[in-house]
């Protein structure tokens, strides 16, 4: 039963035949689990709460950062530094006090995912990394819970519903993850702030449709959205009979080690800032710059937009994607210090240069962020 | 005879930022070969070292996955569009407290 206040709140749903009283009661009895309270989770959770989903679970263990606010509309400026879960709970409860917000301050893992997912009707996957993507997919398939999937990069988004009965799963589309480092992350590639608003809202739309049981769900279809062109494309997805998780003879019957599956088993701990013949610390680079070492050449392999924000004095910009083509512009007799934002892309560029016959190439440990932290705090970080 | 291949955002750094590339060939495999001939930086992203299409790169002829057609031997007609659809993980930012 809906209270009089609820009837008033949901009146625009109740007068629509596709929802009506029966649909609204289904939403009230519905339980949706959002993985992540970030870019995709924000609009998804807000619309799910507004629509009157009875229980919204949220898994996250991060704090709100200034750089989140450009797109993570669950959180506001006063929330910076707070736990995302507390911030999300306050915002969702203020929007709709009838919603039971359940928070899980934990990193989703193979040991807790099944327990956590049990009892939910739909999972909204808004994570940013491949191990968690495969973990969420497999857990959803094993439990028979549909997964409203969304993914974003720069100005392009993808959405689908995986793991529904008789529908394909994420592994039918991508049986294996890419090796680490081949696909840039959001932190590296950037993202148009409004893009997760569109994709997260599509995920919420699908969750709501699945719970009410109306319309045509985005099952067996893969939606690709290009915000710059303002164009949606739809590709056909098929259930792969040989899929290791949802196929006719599944080989994955329980959750596995997804870090290992994604080639990230040996995630090295934060490297200690030491100089070797292949690496250099920001302090050592500063000393060389101050000493005006004539043989020194600082190569910045970030993108031009990043170079506009902050730079190391004297650094020359050649983005990673152009390094191989432009090695001819570099002098092999120089000591080349390669640098990016945090040290990942520059490590790749250093390998390219060494393979091209440059004998004296060093990677700046920690990139320009370490430079700003420890040498020049006057520059902005991004 | 010419066909268009749509390049996804993550791979555009390897096509001089072009979002689509005009290529020619009679099959999906020939179109992809022409693409990597024009932009050889793409090759390691699309093919393994022994020359097989990487499993995390999906190729669509119009709206159909080539795995359910004749894979790289699938014939193409003028005006057919090929899409490369790589897996993208992006969503919430990677947690700093990992």
Order of helices and strands of chain A: HHHEHEHEHEHEEHHHEEHEHEHEHEHEH
CATH A-level architecture of chain B = Roll
Distance between the termini of chain B: 51 Å
Q: Report how far apart the termini of chain A are.
A: 49 Å
User: What portion of residues of chain A is helical?
Assistant: 25-40%
So what's the oligomer here? heterodimer
Largest sheet of chain B: 5 strands, mixed
Quote the average pLDDT of chain B.
87
Q: Structural class from helices and strands of chain A?
A: alpha/beta
If interface size is counted as residues with C-beta under 8 Å from the partner's C-beta, which chains form the largest one? A-B, 58 and 31 residues
- The value of Rg of chain A in angstroms is 24 Å
Number of strands of chain B: 5
Query: How many distinct folded domains of chain A?
Result: 2
CATH-wise, what's the superfamily of the largest domain in chain A?
NAD(P)-binding Rossmann-like Domain
User: Which CATH-level-2 architecture of the largest domain in chain A?
Assistant: 3-Layer(aba) Sandwich
- How can the largest sheet of chain A be summarized? 8 strands, mixed
Model regions low in confidence, pLDDT < 50 over at least 5 residues of chain A: 267-273
Structure description:
The complex is a heterodimer of chains A (382) and B (98). Chain A has 2 domains: 4-261, Rossmann fold (3-Layer(aba) Sandwich); 279-374, Oxidized Rhodanese, domain 1. Chain A has 16 helices and 13 strands. Chain A has helices spanning 4-9, 11-14, 20-29, 41-51, 84-95, 113-117, 130-143, 170-173, 186-189, 195-212, 258-261, 282-290, 304-309, 320-323, 344-355, 367-374; strands at 31-35, 55-60, 100-105, 122-125, 147-153, 156-162, 221-226, 231-236, 279-280, 296-300, 316-317, 335-339, 361-364. The longest helix of chain A is centred in the middle third of the chain and has 18 residues, at 195-212. Chain A has 382 residues and is of the alpha/beta class. Chain A has an 8-stranded mixed beta sheet, sandwiched between helices. Chain B is of the alpha+beta class and 98 residues long. Chain B has one domain: Roll (Ubiquitin-like (UB roll)). Chain B has a 5-stranded mixed beta sheet with strand order 2-1-5-3-4, with helices on one face. The longest helix of chain B has 11 residues, at 28-38. Chain B starts with a strand and ends in a 12-residue tail after the last strand. Chain A binds chain B through residues 36-41, 60-63, 65, 67-68, 72, 107, 125-130, 133, 150-156, 158, 173-178, 182-187, 189, 191, 196, 222, 224, 233-238, 319-321, 324-325, and chain B through 8-10, 13-14, 41, 45, 54-56, 58, 60, 63-65, 68, 83, 85-98.
